[in-house]
Structure formats: structure tokens, C-alpha cells
Write a structure and sequence with these properties.
390 residues; alpha/beta; Rossmann fold; Alpha-Beta Plaits; ACT_dom; NAD; NAD binding
Length: 390
Amino acid sequence: MYDVKTFNAIAQSGLDTFTNDFEINQTDDPDAYLIRSVNLLEAEFPQNLKTIVRAGAGVNNVPVDKATQQGIAVFNTPGSNANAVKELVISLMVATARNLFAANNYSNEHTEADVSQRTEKDKTKFNGTELAGKRLAVIGLGNVGSMVANAALALGMKVIGYDPYLSANAAWRINNRVKRVDSIKKAVRTADFVTVHVPKNDGTIGLIGTKEIADMKAGVTLFNYSRIGIVDNRAVVKAIRTEKINHYCTDFGEPVIADSDKITITPHIGGSTLEAESNGAVQGANTVMNYLENGDTTNCVNLPNMQVGFETAYRITVIHQNVPNMVGQISTQLANRNINIENMANAAKDKVAYTIIDSDSLNQNNEDELISTLNDIAEVYRARVIKHQG
């Protein structure tokens, strides 16, 4: 039996995904956390905690390095809210192109008896443009960016994409009519709209700043539905004053961009739809179960992605530093206890490695001693045994 502790409101569809081998919120020393936006950066983790799964894309609310040091695997659920973000970006693209926000404000302010005549006289103030034929630059062609690009094509737009880290799987999702370029400058220089969809890390903070905005054409509309800090908001404000940027839409407010009729701020609702919350919860629940029951690390952010068929009675997993002779030390401890290795897999991600060993000769008598010995190795973060289900 495994214990899962949830934070925030996890959709019932996700909770219903767990099998009878999982208990929910029955202890403060669980095997897994299933979270959304709770801030864990200063949290103390219980000793038994083996995994933290975020039902969402970003893990900025999780201290990943600290979790790794404690042998805790951290996961996200990429793609679960991609359609929700795509639809919001496309809707805002239409709204800004057609000046809908200003038009709505006008209509609410003018409700007098002669409103029809006045409207006929004033409505040309809100003349907008159509999206068909306009150019859209998509910076980041992952789960969200690829969907935005394809949707824009369906609206008759011309789409330019930039993503130096595009994976082979992501590339398959992108319509071949998206023109890919090798720099932000080439992507934005002729674009009427620019939208940013990249993860937040040291390499993407300030990705769109004064220099990149200078490369854009005058009157561009800019969208940031990735994370705060990826677009330099101070540079945006300056560009709006000079009319370099016509409109800016973002999901992340801060004082410097407040109270401007050229800036639309949504309250971090990009992925907040009933469908996205359900998708993330279900994907998160499956991720918890796959890791705890099989050691599967698909979509893990601090361990290499590994998915190995589990056919033996026991599986030993070891999270450890990516240094020489670790596999040798681990296998020696098994050999010393006459534990035969039926299958072994090992992979690394930066400074962290993950080893999976399958065996039929492990038993209760040698299990506890083996795991204790492996955990005593200085470079090991956590070793555990998984018993085959069924």
C-alpha cells in the first residue's frame, strides 16, 4: 500500500485514477506528493517521500536540487494544459487585433439615448485587422508552441518558428508549413505577432528584452504565456511608449506593467480550464503510480527518462551521483549477497544517474541489509526495492 498526499484542489478525475493500492491524504509521511501551485521552496520533506508530481508544466514551486539530494524524483505533466493555453493565446490574438477591449470599454461608457448615432460616428476608432495573412513568430515549439503555430496556420496566418532545442517528437507535431529559422532575430523581424512558449530556466530568463524588441517591426503585438521573467517587462513598457509594441498580453502581472490600456494581464489562467485540470490530475496520478510501482521516470525533471519492462519478482532502483564506478559498487553489493541480476539499466542526466536492477533472487532476508548498505554509499541519494504487482 502506498500513501499519497495532495496539495491544492486536485480534480476528482485524478483522484479516481488511483487504484486500491493507494491511499489519499491518510498520513503526513507519504510516499508521494501530488501538487499544483503550492509553494514548496522552503518546505521540509518527510523521510518517506519518494516523489513529487506537479499536475502542470512548470516546477518553479519545487526545490528540485534539494529534492534530488534527498532522493526524491520530481515530475511534471507536460502537455496536459497545452490546449487551454493555446486557446487563450489565440483568443487574445483575435481580441487585440480587433481592438475588442477598447470597444467594450467605449460601449460601457456610452449608453445614452443617442448611442446608435454616436456609435456609427465613433466606431471607426476601433477598426482592427484580420489575422489571415498576418505573420506570427512562435518562440518555443514544444507542447504549447506547436499547437499555437498549427492553430494560427488554420486561421490563414503565416507562421515562423524558432526553437534550438526542438525534440524529434515535438517536430512531428508541427505542420510542415511552419517556417523554422535559427535565431530569434530572424523569427521576429517581420512578425505582426510574437508569442513566447519556453520553459523558465537560467537560459531563458530575459529571453525577450531590449535587443530582441528592437529587432521587431513597429506595431507588433507580444504575448508571454510562459513564465514571468522570460520577457523583460520594463523593456516592454519602454517599447509601448515609443509605439514599437502596440499591445502586450501576459499571464503574469507585476506593478511595472499595471494600469496601461496597451497591456492586457490575465491572472495566471492560461492552463486553468476544467479540462486542463482534469488532464493534469489524471496524468499526475498515473505518473505517481508508474514511479512507485515500476520505477518509471518518464517526464522526470531531475532524473533521466527511463521506462524498462518489469518482468521479475523484484526491482531495485538507485538514485546516485553520476560518477565513475557507481554501477560497479552497486553490482558488487548484490554479488556479495548472491543476488543474481536478471536485467540492468543505467542512464544519467547531468550530475545525477539512475540505475534499475531486476532480480528473482532477492528476498526478505537480504532485502533490508542490501538497501541499507546501498544507502550508506556516500554517492547514493536513495535506493529502494519494488515488488512486482500481480
